[in-house]
Structures are given as C-alpha cells and as structure tokens.
Amino acid sequence: MTHHYHTAGELHAHFAVDQDIGSRQNQEDFVHAQPLDAEASPCRELLCVLADGMGGYAGGEIASRVVVTSFTRVIKQQLRSGQPAYRTMLYAAQQADEALRNRKASEPAELSSMGSTLCAAWIKDGKLSFINVGDSLIFLLRNNQLYRLNHCHNHREDMQRQAISQGLDWRVVSQSDSVIRYGSRITSYMGGVGISQVHCPETPLQLQRGDVILLSSDGLLTLTNREIAETMRPYPGSTVRQDVERMLDLVLAKKARHQDNVSAILVRID
C-alpha cells in the first residue's frame, strides 16, 4: 500500500514498504511505517522503523519484531513530551533494547543469543531525524547524488573511523588481516549487554522537494551504490510503490547465491 501525507511548508511525502525473503529460510527483518498524526489535516509526522534480526542466531525474527514494536510504542507515548526528536529516539532505543533483553530472559536457552539492528527515521515539520544501531542503512538521494546518512556499526567501518581519527592511511589499514577476516562482523546491536554504539545526530536534516529517503536492511547491498541511486530516482509517472518494488526486483534479478533477507522503506518528498 502506498501512503500520502502533507508536511509543514507545503512539502508532501509518499512512502511504501517492500520485503523479500531472499534465499533464506525465514524472514528476519521487520519493518513498520506510519504517519503519527493521521487524523490531523494536513499530517505532519511520519515514523519509519526497520530492524534486521541477527543472522546465524535463532530467534532473529522474534528480536526484530520486539525491537520495532517496542520502539514504535515508546515514540508514540512520548509524542507530547516536548523533548527534541533525537532525545526521544535515544530513549525509545534504550527501552526497545531493554524489552528485547527481557524477552530473551523468558525464552528457552537456544534463543539466548538473539539480537537485532535498529534504524529509524522520523519526519516532522519538514525535517528528518534518524537513529541507527548496527549495520542497517539510511540513504538520502538529493539532486541525483546518493548520500548514506548513518554510520554502520561493523568491524570494517569502526576501523575506518578509527584510522581517520588517528590520521592513518585507510588504504593500508583496509588490507590488514583483521579487516579482511572480520570486516562484516557487527559491533553494536540490540539485545546485548547495553547498546555499545548508536548514531543519532542532535540536529535534524531540513528536507527539500525532490528528496528521496531509503531505509533498508543490508541485504540491499547486493546492489551497487549506483544501482541504489538509480532505483531510488523516481521513474516518470511512477508511484513510490512501483519504485520500491523495482528496487527489490533488481536485487532478486542478481540471483546472488546467498541472498539475505531484503527490506526497504522508501519515502519521496515533493
């Protein structure tokens, strides 16, 4: 289903959600997107939340659902708190993390290692606030340029940020045994012993007409950045629903042998 609503400043947003199981046995991603003031006219707020259950551990589909439902519930409870969006999102992430740890404590031992990523975008009054824990993705396409907004928390990117901060040559560090062997290993996630890293900027991003925002699980990285940008760019006369379906169709057309679950929330601003 495709949805439309109006933001402040005469901006309009259209969003759609799509998922595919890939070559996996079950779907461990969980996504949710909804206007937060649907009864208002015009609507001004949209919340998009995506979680990717940790592959290789039992219960990933449980973890992602718990994280998204808990995070969404807390955001809706805090709408009138008067707190800046980033503070509310940080609080909601902490509560979702606690909810998942509590759920793990009540589950059988084989589910004791389940965990999940979290990424969320909150559009309010024509501005975008976001939060990320783990290696899911938040992209912005603006003026035909693709930007990844969030930090990913995996070993490779942690090492890259550390190298840059220390003035080291990343081209050399990237060839180290540690990066080559453990580069994709996730370093921050929901449901562990607290959240070790979180990316949640204090200042929201002012949106513009023509912006396209994408939240996705890392299964989308079967595509190159160029392909992601091309599929985010609206086709003449296409709906946002058609755009997101075309994106996932391209992923599946690659026929990657170990294609991960792939989920996407696409938001178009006009």
Structure description:
This protein starts with a strand and ends with a strand. It has helices spanning 60-77, 85-105, 155-165, 170-173, 177-182, 225-232, 240-253, and strands at 3-6, 12-20, 29-35, 45-52, 118-124, 127-133, 137-142, 145-148, 205-206, 212-216, 262-269. A hairpin with a 2-residue loop joins strand 7 and strand 8 (145-148). The chain is of the alpha+beta class and 270 residues long. The protein has a single domain (3-147, 200-269), classed as 4-Layer Sandwich (Phosphatase 2c, domain 1), CATH 3.60.40.10. The chain is built from 7 helices and 11 strands. The strands form 2 sheets. It has a 6-stranded antiparallel beta sheet, covered by helices on one side.
Keywords:
270 residues; alpha+beta
Q: Can you lay out the helices and strands and say which pair or pack?
A:
Elements: E1 3-6, E2 12-20, E3 29-35, E4 45-52, H1 60-77, H2 85-105, E5 118-124, E6 127-133, E7 137-142, E8 145-148, H3 155-165, H4 170-173, H5 177-182, E9 205-206, E10 212-216, H6 225-232, H7 240-253, E11 262-269
Antiparallel strand pairs: 1-2, 2-11, 3-4, 4-5, 5-6, 6-9, 7-8, 7-10, 10-11
Low-confidence stretches: none
What Rg is obtained from the alpha carbons, in whole angstroms? 18 Å
Proportion of beta-strand residues: 15-25%
Mean pLDDT: 89
* Integer tally of domains: 1
> Which structural class should the secondary elements be placed in?
alpha+beta
The name CATH uses for the topology is Phosphatase 2c, domain 1
- Counting DSSP H or I runs of 4 or more residues, the number of helices is 7
Largest sheet geometry: 6 strands, antiparallel
Strands of the largest sheet, in order across it? 1-2-11-10-7-8
Number of E strands: 11
CATH class category name:
Alpha Beta
**Residue share in helices?**
25-40%
Tell me, what's the shape?
A: globular
SSE ordering: EEEEHHEEEEHHHEEHHE
Give the terminus-to-terminus CA distance: 19 Å
CATH homologous superfamily heading: PPM-type phosphatase domain
CATH architectural type: 4-Layer Sandwich
